[in-house]
Amino acid sequence: MRINLILLASGNSIRFKGNKLLTPVNNKPMYMNVVEKILKLNFNKIVLVTQYEEIKVALSNQPIKVVMNENSELGISHSIKLGINEDVEADAYMFMVCDQPFISLESLEKLIDRFIKSNKGMACVERNGSLGNPTIFSGKYRHELLSLKGDVGGKYIMKKHLDDLKKVRIIHEVELMDIDTREELEMLR
């Protein structure tokens, strides 16, 4: 199965008051914690969508296609479209955010494996009943993903098709925490 990974790194970090993705976590920029893990997995293509030139430059020697999002104010739906449009022939698309530095390689492998074996059209991680990131959508949801508007992401589609969703339980809460404020980051350190 040809799964493309789309890394979402275009947010404005308004609540963080600065570019959180460049903030050090584990002695490297936050986003690199995610990048180093995904490079150990076997994806058809890896696309990172960002508005930050620093990230593009830093990843220039990696097997990652960096797509610049010049219109991040259009919301997450715009980043999703930019990522999918890099290759509309993939069998599935896995979406990850770059502000979840503590997600484990094992959890990523488990999500992919369960998605492939489930014969479901979508998969996502969950904890205590809450749907989280990362997520995977089969190609049959490509049109719906490309039809999203504004700051609406894939959860909108998942909630419409819960019968076609494989949920993968994650035990360690810290793995699914996305960091939105400096205070959240300090609590996790």
Distance between the termini: 37 Å
Tell me the number of strands.
Answer: 9
Radius of gyration: 15 Å
- Approximately what portion of the residues adopt beta-strand conformation? 15-25%
Main pleated-sheet profile: 7 strands, mixed
Strand order of the largest sheet: 5-4-1-6-8-7-9
Poorly predicted segments? none
Structure description:
It is a single chain. With 189 residues, the chain is of the alpha/beta class. The protein has helices at 30-38, 53-58, 76-84, 105-118, 142-146, 155-160, 182-188, and strands at residues 3-9, 24-25, 28-29, 45-50, 65-68, 92-97, 122-127, 130-138, 165-169. The model has no long low-confidence stretch (mean pLDDT 92). A seven-stranded mixed beta sheet has the order 5-4-1-6-8-7-9, sandwiched between helices. A two-stranded antiparallel sheet has the order 2-3. It is built from seven helices and nine strands; from the N terminus they run βββαβαβαβαββααβα.
Main features:
single chain; 189 residues; alpha/beta; 7-stranded mixed β-sheet; two-stranded antiparallel sheet; 30% helix; globular
Topology, please?
Layout: E1 3-9, E2 24-25, E3 28-29, H1 30-38, E4 45-50, H2 53-58, E5 65-68, H3 76-84, E6 92-97, H4 105-118, E7 122-127, E8 130-138, H5 142-146, H6 155-160, E9 165-169, H7 182-188
Parallel strand pairs: 1-4, 1-6, 4-5, 7-9
Antiparallel strand pairs: 2-3, 6-8, 7-8
Short overview:
Helix content is 30%, strand content 25%. It is an alpha/beta fold and 189 residues long.
